[in-house]
Every structure is written in C-alpha cells, then in structure tokens.
Amino acid sequence: EKAERVHKLALMLAQDPFNLHCDLPVLDRAAYLAKADLSTRLVTEMTALQGTAGKFYALAAGEPEAVANAIEEHYSPRSAKDSFPQSPEGLIISIADRLDNLAALFAADAKVTSTSDPYGLRRDAYGVVGSLLNLNEPFSLRRGIDAAAEILPVELTAEKREEVYTFIVRRFENLLEERGYAKDAIGAVLSPNDVDPVPAVDILDYIQKNRESALFLDAAEVYNRCERIIRKSLEAEEMDGVVKENLFQHEQEKQLWRTIQNGLEQISQIDLASNRFEKGIILIADMKELVADFFDHVTVMDENPDFRQNRFALLNHIVSMLRRWGDLRYLEIS
Length: 334
Known about the structure:
The longest helix is centred in the last third of the chain and has 23 residues, at 214-236. This protein has helices at 2-13, 24-33, 41-45, 52-60, 65-73, 88-107, 121-134, 141-150, 158-178, 183-189, 197-210, 214-236, 251-268, 273-286, 288-297, 305-323. Helix 1 (2-13) packs across helix 6, helix 4 (52-60) runs antiparallel to helix 5 (65-73) and helix 6 runs antiparallel to helix 7 (121-134).
C-alpha cells in the first residue's frame, strides 16, 4: 500500500498543477519499482542497503540506468551530510515518499520532540526542502501536502495538514539559519501563507544584497506605513479589499489608484516570484512621493465608513505587491 501511494503521488507531482520536470516514462517505472527491494532477504537483513540494492536488482533485471538511478536516489538524503537526488525522477519520488511519510505519521498523531524523532520526520522535512533547492524546482508545499493527504487511507484533517506544513517550514527555517541568512529576513520570506522554498531563497538573496540601498529603504518605508494602517484596520473591523472608484473624494486617491493598477499589471506579466518581488520593490519605492501626498491630503480614518473602507482597500493593494512573497514588516530597518 505504501509503495502504491508513492507511485501514485509521484505521478501526480509530475502533472498539473505541480508540473515538476522529468522523463515521465522513467518516473513511472522507477516509482513503480521504488520499494520492490524491501521484500528481499538482503534488505530485510541489511536495511541500510535499501535503494542501493534496488538499483542493482533493477539493472540486473534489464531496467534502464535512469530508472535504476532514480530508485537509489529517492532515499537521499539519508543524513544531513548526504547528497540530494541528482535526477528529476529521483527528486520527485523522494518528495512523494517523504510527503507520504509526513502525512501518514501526522495523521497517526506521531510526536516529534526536542530529544526524540523515532520516525525520522525531521530528516524527511529536510529532504523535501533541500532536494527542491538542490535542483532549483519551485513547489507549493501546501498543495504537495494536500496531494499526499488525498491518497492516504486515513483522514488528514485540516488541522493536521497545518501541522505538517508548519513542521516543514520550521525545518526550512533551520536550514536557512544554518546557511547564514539573517533571522529577520528569514521571517519576512517565511511569512506568506504558502512558502515555496526556491523563490523564497532567491528573494532572501535579493534582500540580503539590497536591504541597505536607498531604493529598498524607500520601498520599506512606504510598505510599512501602509501595512501598519491595514493591520490596525483589520484588528478593528472587517475589510472587503475592493476599491470602489465612485467613492474617491480626492485627486490624490485617483492618481494613487491609477499608479497601483499599472504596477499590479506590470507584476502580473512576470513569471518568476523573485522577479515579481524585485519589481514590487521598485514600484513601491517610486510611489514614495505619491503616497506622501496622499497622506497629506486624504484622511484615511474618515468618519464615513464607506470612504474609510475604500482607503483601507487602496493601501492594501500597495502592500499586496509584496506580501504574497515576503513581508517587509519583519525586517529590522534602522
């Protein structure tokens, strides 16, 4: 049953909406055979050979080298010092195997403590994010967890799915700290609701390199000013987020909204998340004088709730240019 789930999940990860790159026939065959060596006497007596034995059994049976290599690679990394899968097929099977482990064991209420991890769940979480980074494959962690949950024989509740997601993200956070990234920058890129490790690292690199530049500081100033107002408004009342042009009372509102719309359109034309973030920084920095003029002439906290809500929504669109990929309020900026 475990082998069938890994096979099925691996094929799911190679298709929409994941579309992880691979040779599909190689993936199909390797995922089908991935756990075959577990039934052999050799692996039963020497479990450390699982995967390695599978590779040589596959070659002896006449399977292509690519299939055999993927079978062996899907167990990597076996430790923090081990290498990651080098082939796309090995990567996908490894992720499928590890997500299945995490989903199944969290569904069974397995516990990981600071001193005990009997099922190697930390290693599985590390293997997922490290392997994706190694082959530079973008991947939605939440969608991956949902896909693994769909084929479990037991229910993985929404609460448990959130626990799995948080567990993987925390291990990703540890990995980033080990690589020397600043903690506040890590907090910024791990704040979105669905972290994708590859663009998160690209954005981290951008922040580390540019956080002291005048452009970045201007963007952070504008972003944080708008974000503070939005956060306070959400604490006090609900916000539908829809900008209604018929409620504009000042030319500054109209001009800011035209600029925001143009900026959002430019961002939507960019494919890579890290490039979208960089473009958002440039656009928000360019709005500095426009936003200052807006605050000089427009009372955001208007007594009229319709005007007030509309201005909240306007500012929220500025924040949305970056917040999906990184939240600048986490950064310690002097």
